Amino acid sequence: MKEIKTFSIKDDLCPVGFALKVIEGKWKLPILWVLCQNGTLRYNELKKSILGITNMMLTSSLKELEESGIVNRVQYNEIPPRVEYSLTEIGNRLLPVLDEFAKWGQELIGIKKL
Questions:
Q1: Could you list the residue range(s) of the whole structural domain that residue 95 is in?
Q2: Which of 4, 95, 96, 113 is most buried, by the most CB atoms less than 10 A from its CB?
Q3: Secondary structure of the chain: what % helix, strand, coil (to 5)?
Q4: Beta strand pairing status for 82-87 and 71-76?
């Protein structure tokens, strides 16, 4: 009998589960996609680029992505304060995955229209 592999999002040894945990949530992928498409952005530029996101969700999602090493945050000591967000090197390695995901989504849109 074939052994069935199991999956747990709580298993930090499973690379797929670990990666999904880093990008889980409603807003992290849209944040990553916007940074992917636009490069370095200030907080308000990010907020305007993601329709429907609240300040609280943007702040918490950015903090989690920064803690995971996916997003880089640079604060400049100016008045008024300026903070910029960009993808880190490991975050940039997600770009081909997001591009393929976008292509897959486009295929799904085409299938749905049939």
A1: 15-113
A2: 95
A3: 55, 10, 30
A4: antiparallel
Is 44 within the bounds of a domain? yes
Its pTM stands at: 0.83
Helices 15-23, 28-38: inter-axial angle, 10-degree rounding: 80
Q: Shortest CA distance to 58 belongs to which of 70, 68, 48?
A: 48
Domain membership flag for residue 26: yes
| Tens digits of residue pLDDT in 83-96 | 999 999 999 999 99
Q: Which two tokens stand for residue 10?
A: 């709580």
Summarised one tens digit per residue, pLDDT across range 13-23 is 778 888 888 99
- The whole-angstrom separation of Cα 68 and Cα 63 is 9
Total structural domains in the chain? 1
